[in-house]
């Protein structure tokens, strides 16, 4: 949505030491840059094993920078790219679909084989994600109580008790969306509802992971639009949380499965706002993201005569 390159590395590929935990089984830090090569360079600096993070993968990263530079030469001969049929169609803006189709043609022209791949459980990923994330957020954010560190808000009148300080601190310290997620998560984890909600969501997560496993037996990477629409106005969807959550429909499956994903700008929609192209790879094969992303980026910039921001200079101000 911002005309930048963004990468979510393989879960455990970048240390989370020092980050504030939101959802421990989902959280992962990654680079956001102007170019694919810059993301690869930053990713190599950020990544690698860290004994201070219990989820950190005790292995070296694949050659990310080399993959980006190889991709920029424009040769994808022998690479098989799968289009996820469940991440297209109804709800996707016409301009988003048009840029996606054009990008597929470009990749085909660079020597890649494009095939359709079905991941039938992806349609349930959104619902599972918005049970798992709030549940883990409720648990992780419980420590922010104003007792030992951080914001501390004391009641304006009456006795200053631990319970009243916690209530005042959390009431003023968290915004409406954070409160909504904490309440949802607390409810999903409560006695009598755990198996029906959080437990069931974890079962769906396993099915999504199996979809990825089956898909990557057929293709090297999967692709889709990054988001179904271009950016919406600030605050426009605050009164309709579901509409806001639906913008995550294409990126959530990778987060549930822990596989890496990359979004590269692939043009602007009819409204003049940037569109993203998502590439997904198997766990610990982050280098494939950079090869495909750099190849598409180089081909697009050649046709545009420069970077995306040159096509929509007003985005420079917004960014």
From TrEMBL:
Spell out the Gene3D superfamilies in the cross-references: Amidase signature (AS) domain (3.90.1300.10)
Q: Which Pfam families does UniProt cross-reference here?
A: Amidase
Q: Which residues form the signal peptide?
A: none
Q: Where is the Amidase domain positioned along the sequence?
A: 1-289
- Extract the InterPro entries matched here: Amidase, Amidase_dom, AS_sf
- What name is this protein filed under? Amidase domain-containing protein
Q: Which organism is it from?
A: Paraoerskovia sediminicola
């Amino acid at each position: 949505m911002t005309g930048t390159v963004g990468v979510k590395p393989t879960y455990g590929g970048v240390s989370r030491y020092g980050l504030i935990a939101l959802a421990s089984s989902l959280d992962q830090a990654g680079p956001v840059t102007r170019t694919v090569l810059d993301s690869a360079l930053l990713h190599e600096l950020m990544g690698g094993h860290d004994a201070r993070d219990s989820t950190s993968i005790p292995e070296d990263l694949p050659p990310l920078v080399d993959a980006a530079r190889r991709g920029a030469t424009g040769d994808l001969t022998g690479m098989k790219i799968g289009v996820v049929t469940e991440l297209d169609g109804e709800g996707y803006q016409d301009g988003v679909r048009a840029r996606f189709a054009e990008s597929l043609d470009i990749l085909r022209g660079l020597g890649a084989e494009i095939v359709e791949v079905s991941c039938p459980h992806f349609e349930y990923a959104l619902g599972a994600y918005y049970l798992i994330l709030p549940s883990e957020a409720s648990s992780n954010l419980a420590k922010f109580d104003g007792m030992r560190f951080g914001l501390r808000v004391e009641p304006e009148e009456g006795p200053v008790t631990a319970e009243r300080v916690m209530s005042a601190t959390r009431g003023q310290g968290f915004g409406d969306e954070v409160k909504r997620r904490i309440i949802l998560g607390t409810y999903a984890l409560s006695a009598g509802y755990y198996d029906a909600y959080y437990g069931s969501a974890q079962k769906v997560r396993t099915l999504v992971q199996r979809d990825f496993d089956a898909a990557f037996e057929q293709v090297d990477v999967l692709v889709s639009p990054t988001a179904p629409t271009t950016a919406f106005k600030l605050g426009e969807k605050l009164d309709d949380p579901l509409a806001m959550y639906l913008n995550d429909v294409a990126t959530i499956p990778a987060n549930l499965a822990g596989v890496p994903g990359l979004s590269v700008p692939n043009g602007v929609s009819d409204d003049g706002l940037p569109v993203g192209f998502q590439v997904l790879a198997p766990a610990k094969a982050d280098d494939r993201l950079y090869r495909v992303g750099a190849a598409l980026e180089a081909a697009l910039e050649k046709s545009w005569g420069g970077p995306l921001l040159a096509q929509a200079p007003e985005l420079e101000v917004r960014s």
